[in-house]
Design a protein that fits this description.
Layout (H helix, E strand, L loop, with lengths): L1 H9 L13 H24 L16 H19 L1 H7 L6 H27 L8
Length: 131
């Protein structure tokens, strides 16, 4: 949602001003939210490979199927965001590089926090995974 409000704020939108479903600003804001979710989930694929081991211990290029899936996911989100057909089918609008940078920053923050959580759990002796 931060990306949604980032786009609105950058365009000068004020809280309480209604936006129609086909308003280009609304479409850009919802697209920013969708793109951020996709980028965060791409990071999540690497983070969820093991509940306690660091994601970095697996290597980023070791699993061809993950890389193939991520490539397909990236191609699909780019189609949805930057083609007329994708915009029409999904009700999206093109977004700027600053939105992608915000999404990447969010994904990196999520990665750092999850790696810190895993390290903390390892130091506690790999406590039960039920919690």
């Amino acid at each position: 949602m931060a990306a949604f409000f980032f786009v609105l704020d950058a365009a000068g939108w004020q809280y309480g001003v209604p936006l129609g479903r086909s308003d280009p600003l609304y479409l850009q804001a919802t697209t920013a939210c969708l793109a951020t979710i996709v980028v965060m989930q791409m990071m999540n694929v690497f983070l969820c490979r093991h509940p306690l081991k660091s994601s970095l211990s697996f290597g980023m290029l070791g699993n061809r199927y993950i890389l193939l899936g991520l490539s397909a996911e990236l191609a699909l989100i780019l189609f949805i965001v930057y083609t007329a057909a994708g915009n029409w089918l999904f009700g999206t609008a093109p977004i700027g590089a600053e939105v992608w940078l915000l999404a990447l920053a969010g994904a990196l923050l999520m990665g750092a926090l999850e790696e810190a959580r895993k390290a903390w759990r390892r130091r506690r002796g790999g406590a039960s995974m039920r919690a």
